[in-house]
Each structure stands twice: as structure tokens, then as C-alpha cells.
């Protein structure tokens, strides 16, 4: 008996309002990350590396950004990635109307489930940072005889109130859900931890179809708030412990690394996780690649410049500049004599000669003026720019300075 067939839906229609101003012109899954990637590349790479070859990417908010990325970075490959994924716009579904939530979006695509007749349906978020072998979750689902499974990551109980929390018994069967609770339900086997939902689900097709049709009749549209809390009363729904997932090539990183990059502060913190002699998350893993459409992801030639604990994406230019604890994304340019310390320079940004930036995130497109000094006088900067709670200055796109 072969492996069960899996049809996957990737939920890529999110607006990402908590990431403004970075996402005012971008969908959240299209946000550039770590140099040459976009957030959606991580879930797509996980599915591709897990041998899942029927993937539909559901788009809505500013879809052209992701359509262009899919065509440019995925559809033109010669290794089979050009055939495993299909973008879906609301207008291309039978109802031709907008998606009103995650469950409603998949409901509008049930004709694809019926056409493919898969053994399982996966519904995965498009905007999280992690590596995962989905086949291991599939094996868990089959082994438990589950009707639905929810990927869950153990988090410290003191941080659990920031997440959607899963209440599970000692067999990991789900008994309830808590949305950002004041008193999170602890894990039965580890009272100092709680299960946070990762927004990744597996369903038996018949169970999913019935649940979505019933939800639509009730006017309910969301998996986490509506569909799953109802399913646990009539079906076997289990939590899959992500900390047990083993991915080849992972060495020395934070165990079960997963980040919901949902705010500007979280976006900054996730970038910092990439740096240091022992990064919490490594972008390069030749045994479990994150694909980005580039044959080479990182630049090495910086001329006479100085680079320390930094990432310079392939296609970025930073010759004769000084970078420390910083990330310069693809398509950015840092001129000679510029100094960056603890900065994130996004796509389409030019930092002109002699500019000095410290603790600054520059959204693109943008131009930092020659000789500009930002991050050295926080009182003056606070009058001009927003900042994260931790004090990182954020220069919005298209606000030249």
C-alpha cells in the first residue's frame, strides 16, 4: 500500500494589517524575508520537499504580487516545481465571489477536492517561518485514525496567551480551543507548556466537505473560530506535536522553530534569528531547501567593504560599505561609505554614500539620502518615524529621506 494522496490548499489571501506599513502594498505572504525569499516560499518548499504535488494557492488581497512571484520563482523551474502548484483567484471559482475567511475560501474550491478525490486534504497557512516534513504529520493522522489533525507547537505557558491554544488530552486528542487565553490550558505531560495552533490542518475529505457545507449554511467562515471547534464534538480531531517532526539537515538550530511573523516587531525578531554564530533558524539547508527562484541566494563580493554577522542577498549591491548585524534584501543597494548597524534593508531601497543607520528597518521602495544619520538620535527619529515596541525605527515604503 502506497502513501496516501494529499491535495493541499495554501491560504495566501491575507492582508496583514498588523504588518503595516510594510504590507500596505503587499499581501502578507508576499512580504520579502531573509534576503531573497518571500514568506510564502517556506510553506511551498515544505510541501514540495514532502513530495506533495497537488497544491492550490488561494489568493485574494493584492494577488498580482504573488502571481508574479509564482511565475518568476516557481513556474519557470526545470526540477518539477513548475507543475505542482496552481494559483486560484476568487473570480475563478464557481461562485466567482470574494473569499470571506479561510473556511469559506476552501468551500469555494470543493469542486477541486471532488475532481482530485485525494485520500487527505491539507490546509496550510502561507505566512509562517518554519521547516516541516508534512509526511510525518500525514503518518500521525493515519496512525491515530483521525478525521482531522491540527499541527501544534509547544510554547512556554507564560507566552501562550499570544496564541490560539489547543486543549488536548494525554493522547493528543483535542478537547477544546482557547483564543489568546488569560489562563492557557497546559499540556498534560508538560505543565510548563501549552499547544499553540500553527494554522496547518489535515482532513479526511468527506469530513471536510460536510463540515464546510454546514458552516456555510450557518454563515460561518473560519477554520479556527468555527469549523474545528464544532468538529471536536462529533469527530476524532488530534493535535500533531510539531516538536516531534524531524527534518534532514537541521543542525544546531532552535528545536521546533516556528514563527508567526504577524507584526513588524515579530518580523524584525525573525530576521535577527537568522544571524549570529549559532542562528536559531538557518536559511541554507541543502537537504531541505527553501526555494526562491535563484541559483545563488547570497552575495559574497563586497569589494573593500566590511561585513560582520550580516546577510547580503544575491542581487543586492553593497560594495565598499560597512554592514554589521544587518540584512540587505535582493534588489537593494548600499553605496560606498554607508554604514549599517542592526538594520534590515528591504527590496527596492537605496542607501546613498556615507549614510549612517543604526537599528533601522527601511521598507522599499525608498532612498536614504547621502550622509543621512538615522537611529543615532531617538528623540528626533521618533518625531519622524514609527518604531517597534523594542525600539526598531521603521521607515515606511515610499517615504524618501
Account of the protein in words:
The relative contact order is 0.13. This protein has helices at 40-49, 63-74, 102-107, 110-116, 134-144, 205-218, 223-231, 264-272, 378-382, and strands at residues 6-11, 32-33, 37-38, 54-58, 85-88, 120-125, 128-130, 148-156, 164-168, 174-179, 193-203, 237-241, 258-260, 306-308, 311-312, 322-324, 327-328, 333-334, 339-341, 344-345, 349-351, 356-358, 360-362, 366-368, 373-374, 393-395. It folds into two domains: 6-260, Spore Coat Polysaccharide Biosynthesis Protein SpsA, Chain A; 298-395, UDP N-Acetylglucosamine Acyltransferase, domain 1, CATH 2.160.10.10. The chain is of the alpha/beta class and 401 residues long. Strands 1, 4, 5, 6, 8, 9, 10, 11 and 12 form a nine-stranded mixed β-sheet that branches. The protein is built from nine helices and 26 strands. It is globular. Helix content is 21%, strand content 25%. The mean pLDDT is 92.
What would you give as the CATH superfamily of the largest domain? Spore Coat Polysaccharide Biosynthesis Protein SpsA, Chain A
Rg, please? 22 Å
Q: How much beta, percentage-wise?
A: 25-35%
Fold-level CATH name of the largest domain: Spore Coat Polysaccharide Biosynthesis Protein SpsA, Chain A
Helix content: 10-25%
Biggest pleated sheet: 9 strands, mixed
SS elements, strand count: 26
Q: Flag low-confidence runs.
A: none
Counting DSSP H or I runs of 4 or more residues, the number of helices is 9
- In round numbers, the mean pLDDT is 92
Second-tier CATH architecture of the largest domain:
Alpha-Beta Complex
Oligomeric state of shown chains: single chain
Query: How many domain modules?
Result: 2
- The helix/strand class is alpha/beta
Separation of the first and last Cα atoms: 63 Å
Query: Based on CA inertia axes, which overall geometry fits?
Result: globular
- CATH class term of the largest domain: Alpha Beta
Amino acid at each position: 500500500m502506497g502513501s496516501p494522496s494529499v491535495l493541499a490548499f495554501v491560504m495566501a489571501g491575507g492582508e496583514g494589517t498588523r504588518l503595516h506599513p510594510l504590507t500596505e502594498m503587499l499581501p502578507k505572504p508576499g512580504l520579502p524575508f531573509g534576503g531573497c525569499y518571500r514568506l510564502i516560499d517556506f510553506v511551498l518548499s515544505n510541501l514540495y520537499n514532502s513530495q506533495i504535488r497537488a497544491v492550490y494557492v488561494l489568493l485574494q488581497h493584492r494577488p498580482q504580487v504573488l502571481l508574479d512571484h509564482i511565475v518568476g520563482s516557481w513556474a519557470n523551474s526545470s526540477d518539477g516545481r513548475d507543475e505542482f502548484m496552481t494559483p486560484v483567484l476568487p473570480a475563478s471559482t464557481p461562485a466567482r465571489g470574494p473569499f470571506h475567511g479561510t473556511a469559506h475560501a476552501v468551500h469555494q474550491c470543493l469542486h477541486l477536492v471532488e475532481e482530485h478525490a485525494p485520500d487527505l486534504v491539507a490546509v496550510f497557512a502561507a505566512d509562517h517561518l518554519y521547516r516541516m516534513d508534512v509526511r510525518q504529520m500525514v503518518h500521525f493522522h493515519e496512525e491515530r485514525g483521525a478525521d482531522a489533525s491540527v499541527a501544534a507547537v509547544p510554547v512556554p505557558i507564560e507566552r501562550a496567551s499570544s496564541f490560539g491554544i489547543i486543549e488536548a488530552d494525554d493522547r493528543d486528542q483535542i478537547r477544546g480551543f482557547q483564543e489568546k487565553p488569560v489562563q492557557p490550558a497546559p499540556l498534560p505531560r508538560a505543565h510548563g507548556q501549552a499547544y499553540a495552533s500553527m494554522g496547518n490542518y489535515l482532513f479526511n475529505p468527506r469530513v471536510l466537505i460536510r463540515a464546510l457545507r454546514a458552516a456555510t449554511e450557518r454563515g460561518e467562515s473560519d477554520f479556527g473560530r468555527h469549523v474545528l471547534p464544532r468538529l471536536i464534538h462529533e469527530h476524532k480531531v488530534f493535535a500533531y506535536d510539531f516538536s516531534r517532526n524531524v527534518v534532514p539537515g537541521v543542525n544546531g538550530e532552535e528545536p521546533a522553530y516556528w514563527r508567526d511573523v504577524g507584526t513588524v516587531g515579530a518580523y524584525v525578531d525573525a530576521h535577527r534569528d537568522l544571524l549570529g554564530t549559532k542562528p536559531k533558524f538557518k536559511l541554507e539547508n541543502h537537504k531541505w531547501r527553501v526555494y526562491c527562484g535563484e541559483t545563488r541566494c547570497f552575495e559574497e563580493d563586497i569589494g573593500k567593504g566590511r561585513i560582520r554577522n550580516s546577510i547580503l542577498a544575491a542581487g543586492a549591491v553593497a560594495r565598499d560599505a560597512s554592514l554589521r548585524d544587518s540584512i540587505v534584501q535582493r534588489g537593494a543597494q548600499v553605496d560606498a561609505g554607508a554604514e549599517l548597524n542592526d538594520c534590515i534593508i528591504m527590496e527596492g531601497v537605496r542607501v546613498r554614500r556615507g549614510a549612517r543607520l543604526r537599528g533601522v528597518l527601511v521598507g522599499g521602495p525608498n532612498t536614504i539620502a547621502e550622509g543621512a544619520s538615522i537611529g543615532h538620535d531617538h528623540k528626533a527619529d521618533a518625531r519622524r518615524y514609527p518604531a517597534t515596541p523594542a525600539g526598531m525605527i521603521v521607515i515606511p515604503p515610499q517615504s524618501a529621506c
